[in-house]
Amino acid sequence: MNSPKATICLSSSSRISFLFYCLAIICLTSTTVSVSYGGNETDHLALLSFKSKITQDPYQVLTSWNHSYHFCDWSGISCGKRHKRVIALRLGSKGLEGSLSTHVGNLSFLRELYLRNNSFQGTIPHELGRLSRLRILYLNRNKFRGVIPTNLSGCSNLEDNWLDRNELAGSIPKEMSLLSKLASLEISKNKLTGGIPPFLGNITSMEVFSARGNPLGGSIPDTLGHWKCLKEFYCGDCNLYGSIPHSIFNLSLLVNFSLSTNHLTGSLPSEIGVMLPNLEWLQLRNNELTGVLPTSLSNCSELGLLEMVDNNFSGKLTIDFSKLRNIKIIRLGPIPDAIGNLSRLIQVYLYSNKLEGHIPSSFGNCKELNGLNLADNRLSGKIPKQLLQLPSLTYFLELSYNNLSGSIPSDIKDLKMLNHLALSYNKLSRTITSSLGECISLITLNLRGNQFQGIIPSSLSSLGGLEILDISQNNLSGKIPQFLDNLKSLEYLNLSFNDFEGEVPVVGVFANASAFSVLGNQRLCGGLFTLELPKCKERGGLKISSTGIKGTIGYAPPEYGFGSEMTDHVIDVIDDDAIELQSTEANAKKVEECLVATIKIGVSCSVDSPAERMKIEIVVNELQRILHVLQNI
């Protein structure tokens, strides 16, 4: 028989079991909710707010940002192991468009905000200043406008602040100086003004500073000499003026130093190479610096790039380039004699420097050289064959606008991988060497404005990749070779101002009147109807042209002044004094030649395409030459 007490005890036990069961259900439910919505609702809501401001997500990187996953598992999110708080938001180069939510400032454990190379617009939220744990801020390569927030000074642990390549305006805020741990400040390619503020010198932890491409203005403050840890300094194209403070040259750890394209004056310290022994980049081109290039630069044994062109340096170059074994790119004034000692040299830019003398044959020792630009100088002599024996020369060889003479050495056949060869406006003569046909990688060949004679060599038919061929303003003759219309890649051909004869083809590049020029070839005929060249006449099995002006793209009638006699049409526009000069047959011939040359120039200056017109400096030189001839009759 069961006692009442026993029944009561059993009932109590069941109730206790039921209570434990309910408690377990509650705990399980609580755990499930925690898994779905995370360890901190503030972070969760901040991320959802971030997502809501995104208007374009072309790579669908935010599709995982939903309730099916813990937010720590969302794409681009990293959380701490202990507290499950967001410590990094990395969504760089994802094509995101929209604005940056102010609620990102609620991610109080955030250490990295990496949103570079997207299309974020609007202003940078001031709320980011609440992120006291933030160490890395990459907002560069976006479309942010407005000013740099002063509140960023609240990011007291910030080490890297990259805001470059946006549309930020205004000045660098003074609150920036409160970031005592800042190691790199990248603000280049914005619209910042107000100069480089002296208070930045208070950030003694600075290692990298880049402000290039901003219209900052002003001078370089002496206080930047406090950056004893500085390794990289880039302030090119900042409209800076004044001299470079001496304190800058005491930053012995400096590796890359760039101040190109400013208005800086003064001279460089004679001991710059001793003071900055770790230099690898030195870019001071396009300023107003004076004095000599210090010999002590020879001490910068790690120097790989040296750019000093477009300044007012003077004196003899005394740098010992034999000590600069790592140099790869040089942009200087005069060509150093010891340039051949730079065995690791890759590219040389010495254009537009009024250089005189010969091209050093020692270039042949630069076994890694792939590009050489010596254009627009006063170099004379022959092209050294040692230079043309460099198989490494694959990119460009630019020697235009000099006074080089002689023929093109046959050694040019060794440049089988060269893409661009420009020898225009020199005094090169004789025939065009057939060895050019072995430069099978040529894309551009420019021999314009020389004194070449003879025919176009048939070997050029092997240049299947040639896109541009300019052999105008020479003394070439013969027929236009048939292989030219078979060069399938040829996009532009200039044969003007030579002495070619016969029929102009109508296929290939010759099928497009805007793709070629035969201006100034008197004895051409046929071709496209739009050229208005005379029809070719059969004579003895040969096609010959009727008389026309040597100096037109198409046909020009004889009444413009060519033939055995000058016509009344030309006489109407000629100075009477010029006619009186024709007192002798010799003088008459000279006057006729001068008139022909003058009309050629006029026609060349009247071409529809501005790119095809004779350059004004050439016009002036030719007219002065003509005047000199007339004055001596």
From TrEMBL:
GO biological process: defense response; response to other organism
Keyword Isomerase: no
CC per GO annotation: membrane
Topology of this chain in the membrane: Single-pass type I membrane protein
Keywords in alphabetical order: ATP-binding, Glycoprotein, Kinase, Leucine-rich repeat, Membrane, Nucleotide-binding, Receptor, Repeat, Signal, Transferase, Transmembrane, Transmembrane helix
UniProt-listed PANTHER family: DNA DAMAGE-REPAIR/TOLERATION PROTEIN DRT100, L DOMAIN-LIKE PROTEIN
Protein name: Protein kinase-like domain-containing protein
Organism encoding this protein: Tanacetum cinerariifolium (Dalmatian daisy)
